[in-house]
Amino acid sequence: MDRIKIIGGEKLYGTIPIAGAKNAALPLMIASLLTPETLILENVPRLSDVRMLKRILGNHGVDVMVAGKRPGESAEDGEVVRLQAAHIVDTVSPYELVSQMRASFWVLAPLVARMREAKVSLPGGCAIGTRPVDLLLMAMEKLGCKIEIDSGYVLASAPDGLKGAEIDFPKVTVGGTHTALMGAVLARGKTVIKNAACEPEVTDLAHCLVKMGAKISGIGTPTLEIIGVEHLHGATHRVLPDRIEAGTYACAVAMTGGDVLLDGVTPDLLQSALDKLKASGTEVIPEGNGIRIRREGGKILPVNITTEVFPGFPTDLQAQFMALMTRADGVSTIIETIFENRFMHVSELARFGAKIRLDGDAAIIEGRETLKGAPVMATDLRASVSLVIAALAAEGETMINRVYHLDRGFEGLETKLQRCGAKVERIRG
Ligand code: EPZ
User: If you average pLDDT over every residue of the chain, what do you get?
Assistant: First the structure.
């Protein structure tokens, strides 16, 4: 298993290109099941989750082809992936695949929309909590789908096709909104989704579906109206930039000090996180097609954070900001409201000497000037990268084990950091 070795203490200077968003690429790839024509996705990140989803979709009969390099393209440009589901040959998504990547459960809606049936394994819990799918199933039932649970599988069927309905989510859910959207676009009649997630990745999916011929209004708001159409067609869509990758590198620069341009991301995608960075004493300057992050000297100021749905502070940046706050000049509180168990990084951050106390859904962080490198273990994707951030500023050597979590969501992490002067090395094996 690969490990990452980091010698801390270097400031970061340079440019980091921001990749396409994993959490947009995954539902967009799944949307290819909705049409027999070709969906071309540009700027798809090279990540293990994307590779896994290519396999899963291939299993359903989707032809997945990665286009060769074009003149003028650089290594930083994402992949161009062509997906064509001319014939869906299998409507079963087995446990072995779904258990490796929760988002693959989202194939349920397009499979039923197109094939009128699906058998998809329940995804099970994961390192950040139980993560139920009750609201996704509720949305499908509202659309007229019959749902049965048998031996760990969801058996979904709609022999007469899906019907438009009103779906009112009692809680904002990204996966629930993706599911409702992908079910509704091919349903008969009108669907209204209330309390829909407004995360940029949901909006990106909606825009792509419109390019494919879907009729959706209210995109970007909590109320989406969909008029079902009989068929969707092929389209070309560029995956939006990864706001979480951008926020992560921004935290890294705030942590070590330095001056880095995050290239290819706009502030509106992560304004709440940028506001917190500014409050911590970091300069945030929109520049051209990117955002410059600068901190030259001065202390890291403590900030209090509560995770919220978009446009609030994202839960996917909570662990990274906690790492930053371990070196703040004072006490900060971070409250996690989205997932009930997303503090797995706390005990690993403590190995650097960080002082963090947990109290229910709150973490109280007493900042200290120096952290010391240590052997640590990655637990989930965002938790892992918080350890990288801590290690970049810690004295001495840190060895991060189980880095396959990082490979799920950060393309070229070591290269991007090395180019900015960090001493980061992947040890294979
Ligand atoms: C998406 O997960 C993201 N995953 C997560 O990113 C992200 O943290 C999350 O949205 C919140 O922004 C992908 O896009 C692949 P939810 P999702 O449904 O859709 C509860 C990462 O690191 N809930 O919005 O699974 C749920 O337990 C990942 O990239 C129900 O109760 O999240 C949670 O408390 C981790 N019943 C809340 O809603 C349901 O049926 C929000 O979850 C569904 C969700």
Answer: 95
3-18+241-427 homologous superfamily = Enolpyruvate transferase domain (3.65.10.10)
pLDDT at 69: 76
Question: What 3 state SS string does the chain have?
Answer: CCEEEEECCCCEEEEEECCECHHHHHHHHHHHHHCCCEEEEEEECCCHHHHHHHHHHHHHCCEEEECCCCCCCCCCCCEEEEEECCCCCCCEECHHHHCCCHHHHHHHHHHHHHHCEEEEECCCCECCECCCCHHHHHHHHHCCCEEEEECCEEEEECCCCCECCEEECCCCCHHHHHHHHHHHCCCECEEEEECCCCCHHHHHHHHHHHHCCCEEECCCCCCEEEECCCCCCCEEEECCECHHHHHHHHHHHHHHCEEEEEECCCHHHCHHHHHHHHHCCCEEEEECCEEEEEECCCCCCCCCEEECCCCCECHHHHHHHHHHHCCCCCEEEEECCCCCCCCCHHHHHHCCCCEEEEECCEEEEECCCCCECCEEECCCHHHHHHHHHHHHHCECEEEEECCHHHHHHCCCHHHHHHHCCCEEEEECC
Q: How far is the CA of 174 from the centre of ligand 1 (A)?
A: 6
307 in contact with ligand 1, CB cutoff 6 A: no
Q: Which residues are catalytic?
A: 126
pLDDT surpassing 70 at residue 106: yes
Best substitution site from 154, 173, 406 to test ligand 1's pocket, by max atoms within 8 Å of Cβ?
173
173 CA → ligand 1 middle, Å: 6
Ligand 1 contacts CB of residue 338 (under 6 A): yes
Assigned CATH class of 22-238: alpha beta
Position 34 scores a pLDDT of: 98
The preferred substitution site among 136, 174, 344 for testing ligand 1, maximizing ligand atoms within 8 Å of CB, is 174
Q: Where do you find CATH 3.65.10.10 in the chain?
A: 3-18+241-427, 22-238
- Under the banding of pLDDT at 50, 70 and 90, the label for residue 232 is very high
Look at the pTM and tell me if it is higher than 0.85.
yes
> What is the atom index within ligand 1 of the atom nearest the CA of 131?
27
